């Protein structure tokens, strides 16, 4: 049982983090309430959950209690607490490290026993201590930063700027300008550094996956709403929360046809991504709006009624509704529709894996259709634009696909080796036979011919 839990309340403080006696933890409650000021709502919720879970572990672990390590203690205490957590709970290897600027760090190397990724926890704790310092509730330096790291980074940056001025007679231009063709040097003040935990997408290249999921949903009892939402995921490769946040204005962009606009990761509500769906998905969505959604709409509006409304009003009308007339929540869909439907058919698939499936299928398609290197690069660029990535993720997918194809590559190598081995044995036998025939006497050869050997 967790030592702390999060409660949603009304008033100035929308969240309370309370212990098992129902008493609030001041610093955790404060962070839960102010985190949305520094991060998006989804990121804030994820960070708060990470920090509260870590605080619960800290408050209940016997070794932590015996050592008197405090969540809000001095940086040395917090770092010792985290190092113990990584080694004992996460089964990681924690080793001494040194940054290129000279300050001391700790290198964290996950092992095969590490049950989950650690980037979010480290980012959440950095945000937690940084927010408390701004509010005056933590009176030390941020323990997630190495001692003296910020000062050394600033000194190094000043040194680089001074060297540039001495060489060119002016300060450096922004990297976006393209004037100074110098790679931007990235510095990190982090005390804990993850190693050997590079993220790779999951490769799913089964063309029948969409049909399997839709069949599982149909057998379980999905309505047109779930069918439409799932088809949007498979047609576009968008994230689940992006699909759930679609509004009627996003679809009216194409007059309720084959194109939608949506939010993107980090777009803060701005519609920066274009989604393209198939004719069949269009028909499913149109039927959903006219036959099912209309029953839960506050004004019983269908597509014809929405087409007459101004775009400003359509921006506040969600495409996917619950029976209460509220927007469909991603967690609600995942928990109450996606997981039970797929589990009943024996499918183990997360919603986000559909995105990896879409990119893998798109890459396979462009590599098959492209007739030249130029056409291939243009098609890959189109995929980047279609996915609206802020950074180029295609090299990461290429690496994942190569790893995924290693068993097939090994199989072809083994087949080739077996063929070469068989050919070599046959050649050796023929050579031995010819050599044996050459050593036979004339009388032996005549005798074999007479006996038909």
Which properties best describe this structure?
453 residues; mainly alpha; hpI Integrase, Chain A; 2 domains; 3-stranded mixed sheet; two-stranded antiparallel sheet; 56% helix; extended
**Level of helix content?**
55-70%
The profile of the biggest β sheet is:
3 strands, mixed
Shape: extended
> Could you tell me the mean pLDDT?
88
The termini sit apart by 86 Å
Rg value: 31 Å
Listing every helix as H and every strand as E from the N terminus to the C terminus, the arrangement reads EEHHHHEEHHEHHHHEEHHHHHHHHH
Q: Which strand order spans the largest sheet, edge to edge or round the barrel? A: 3-4-5
How much of the sequence lies in strands comes to: 5-15%
CATH class of the largest domain: Mainly Alpha
Structural class: mainly alpha
User: In the residues, how many domains can be counted?
Assistant: 2
Can you tell me the CATH architecture of the largest domain? Answer: Orthogonal Bundle
* Number of DSSP-assigned strands: 7
CATH homologous superfamily of the largest domain? Intergrase catalytic core
Structural description of this entry:
The chain is mainly α. It folds into two domains: 130 residues, no CATH class; 226 residues, hpI Integrase, Chain A (Orthogonal Bundle). Helices cover 56% and strands 8% of the residues. The chain is built from 19 helices and seven strands. It has a three-stranded mixed β-sheet with strand order 3-4-5. A two-stranded antiparallel ribbon has the order 1-2. Helix 7 crosses helix 14 and helix 15 runs antiparallel to helix 16. The termini are far apart. The mean pLDDT is 88.
